[in-house]
Structures are given as C-alpha cells and as structure tokens.
Amino acid sequence: MTIRLSLAALLLSGTFAHAQQTDLTIALQLEPPHLDPTSAAAGAIDSVLYSNVFEGLTRFMSDGSVVAGLAESWEISDDGTVYTFKLREGVSFHDGSAMDAGDVKFSLDRARAEDSQNAQKALFAGISEVTVDDPTTVTVTLSAPDGNFLFNMAWGDAVIVAEESIGAIKSEPVGTGPFKFAEWVQGDSIRLMQNADYWGEAPALTEATFKFISDPTAAFAAMMAQDIDAFAGYPAPENLPQFEADPRFQVLVGSTEGETILSTNNKMPPLDNLKVRQAIAHAINRQEIIDGAMFGLGTPIGTHFAPHNPDYVDLTGMSEYDPEKARALLAEAGFADGFTTTLKLPPPSYARRGGEIIASQLRAVGIETEISNLEWAQWLEEVFRGKDFGLTIVSHTEPFDIGVYARPDYYFQYGKPEFQELMETLTGTSDPEQRSALLRQAQEMISEDYVNGYLFQLAFPTVADARLEGLWQNAPTQATDLTGVRWTE
C-alpha cells in the first residue's frame, strides 16, 4: 500500500512526467534510388546516409570546414604528394567486423579503378598508390600535389566501405557511423537505429525515420498535423511565413552549395553554338524564377560558384535579362525563327516550377521547349548518363564542384582544354592568393562561354518542431546530419 501511495504521489508531483524523447521522424523530398553513396550521382543518398551511416577519412561540419573523421590525424610529405593517415583504433563496421587500413585501401582503390562506378571518380584520379603500413596506418601517394585532397576525402563519394558488404550495399548499407541501417520501405521511408558500438560520442537519438514526401501540398499537411518532426529542405517556401507564425515550429533558412542551373548539352545542335547559348542566357529573367518558383528564396548567380565563398565573383551582369539581345543573337546564329529543344525536369520543385517559367521566357524569344517530367532514376539514366537532352534544370549540391567543367564526358559536355589546364594548375597550387586568382579565372571562363544558364544558389529551408536542436541550418554538402540532434524537453 505504501508503494502504491508513493507512486500516486510521484505521478501527481510530475516526477513521472514525459520521458525525454529520443526518436525522430524527419522528412525529405527525394528518396534515394539505392543506398550506395560510392556508385551514384544522386545526392539523395548522402541526404540520408552521410555521417549517419557512412564515414570517410575526413568529414564536413555544418560550417563547411573539414575535420578528422575515421583518420584521427595525418602527416603530409614536404613535396605534398604523400599523405600518411593514422586511423582511429577500435572502429567497427555495423556487422561487427573491424575497420582497418585494408578497408581504406579497398575503398580508395575501388573508387579509382578503371571500372569504377563512382560518380566523382575524378576526385581519386590523382592517387597513384595506396599502401597499408599496419592495421591503423595507411599511406596515400599522389601523382602530383593536390591542395584539395583532404577536402575531397570528406565527400560522400569517399566514405570507407568493407569489401565483404559491397555485394548488398545498395539495399543493406554497412558503415561505421553512429546509426546503422534498420529498414527501407521503398516509396515511403528509411529507418536507422543507434549504433551501440559506435567508436565516438553516442548520439542523443536512438532511432530516426526518414519519410519521403515529394508533393509540396502533402509536405505542408504532414508538418501541420505534426505527423513528422522536421522537414529538411522544405519544398514549399510559400508556406514558411505560416510556420514562422506558429509557436509549435521553428524555421531555419540556410545556404547550400547548390548552384541551380539550366544545364545545357554543349554537344547537341544548335546548343553547341556559343551565340545560341548566349541568347538563352539573356532570355532568362533570374529574379522572376526566384520569385515565382522559390517565393524569393535564392541568390542570383552568374557562374558555377557559391556566393558565400570568399573567392566568388559576381558575373550576373554577363547574362542580364535582355530578350531583345537574345533575339538578335539567335538571328546572328542563323535561328531568326527560333528552334525547338527538349527540357527534361527532375522532381524537385525548383526544377518543375522553374521549368514552366523558363519555358515561357524562352518561348518569348522564339525557343520552344518540349517539357518532360522525369523521376530521378529516369533523369540519371537519360540525362546524366545518357546525355539525351537539350536542356535540364538541376541544383549541383556537391561542395566546391567547379572542377566538373574540366570533364569532357560530364553530362553537359564542355571539357574545354584551357579549362582543364586551369584546373590542373589549381590542383597543384597551395598558395591561397594564387588559388584565388585561378578560381576567379575559372569562374570567368565558364561564364564567358555560357556553358550553362546560371540561375540561383539554392536556399535550404528547414521546418522543425520548436523543441528540436542541432539540425544543420546550412548545407555545405547534401546531408541530414543527425549526430548532434536532440529534443530539448
């Protein structure tokens, strides 16, 4: 009887009030096509798995800085070509097997192999040899100094995987991170569970479910009903004022590495004509797209570089909105009556909404577009791999990725030799002032060649329960890092 009275008293006093919540349901707009970040270009994979399930030698923090990951330290040779990494001890994969230098060698050799399916294979092209010195020491030898090497190793494409788990990695990923894969209900959600054997600090969350909600209207309904706790990269910016006025929620609006561009097939006639590409650039009213598709969220850009980067050059004046100039350039190029091309749009609302606006703007100068709405798997197959497109809209969310313009086989097919030489020089340069000068030249070259239509830097709005803390506001890489997320009550 005494025990019952004590329990009753405790309940009345509130001591047995709500236990601290440790699970989270967070929504994303895009579902990954599979779960191997080392063999696909889809950023949606990293959005779920980066730093949660998989880790690399180094990693990005929320401010874009690069810090130690699975490598606790490293030494660099005087000539800048040899990196000796000291790995953390006691690190295990989620299947219980030890992570050691052999796994690092396997991962880097696999990424740079001739038959590699890694979407960022160029990141590893400068590696000439990877050697295992002992279980916790690995040496990476480069063919030439690379000032970006530690930065490159922080990409999601450079995470460390085990050879034993590669066969099933696309559906059952096995990493070293603080969360391990639990379940994937395709078309609906992915569930992660806390890794009790994690080598580092345990996360506050014991379970996290990623829900995939592609429709902006459904996203609003789910958030308002509090069926989800947060939506990272909320797809309907027109709703943000309503959430800001509701004390149940917090709204975080950050920046991304996402250069949103009207990607142009530089090898497809008539888009292979510089004057045609220039005409397209002058036919586009960036602010109208930002206002109409993004409800004012987004920073205009005139080249493929993030405005928050200290080396950014504002080149928007190179492609100011001037439809009369666009029509004149088309006439000079031999297309006074215009032409027709394809406009293939992936699922994000910036692409679908922006595509309708751009189609109207191009039509006004005589360019007709045949719009196709594609799912991501289709877009990757037709556009990214197949290069079967005239125009498309996509946000390049990879960090510091102007180097993709040096790849002649990249989907927009530029690869100018002079630009390739510029990137090679940049890679071998460590002096900050010299690097800044080279980056300015690179931005100017692709702007002057009108390789793509440069639209805006993608903003990153997140709507979340007001009691959550630790969510990333900015997106220096495409990730939903849950390692520091916790409930405050």
What are the main properties of this structure?
4-stranded antiparallel sheet; 27% helix; 11-stranded mixed sheet
Short description:
This protein is an alpha+beta fold. The protein has helices at residues 2-13, 43-49, 101-112, 149-152, 216-224, 240-244, 274-283, 286-294, 323-332, 349-363, 376-385, 417-427, 432-448, and strands spanning 23-28, 58-60, 66-68, 71-76, 82-87, 127-134, 137-142, 179-185, 189-194, 207-212, 230-232, 249-264, 299-300, 339-345, 367-373, 391-396, 453-465, 468-469, 486-487.
What does it look like?
- The protein is 27% helix and 24% strand.
- The chain contains 13 helices and 19 strands.
- Strands 1, 8, 9, 10, 11, 12, 13, 14, 15, 16 and 17 form an 11-stranded mixed beta sheet that branches. A 4-stranded antiparallel beta sheet has the order 4-5-7-6, covered by helices on one side. It has a two-stranded antiparallel sheet with strand order 2-3.
- The longest helix has 17 residues, at 432-448.
- The chain is globular and about 70 Å long.
- The two termini are 32 Å apart.
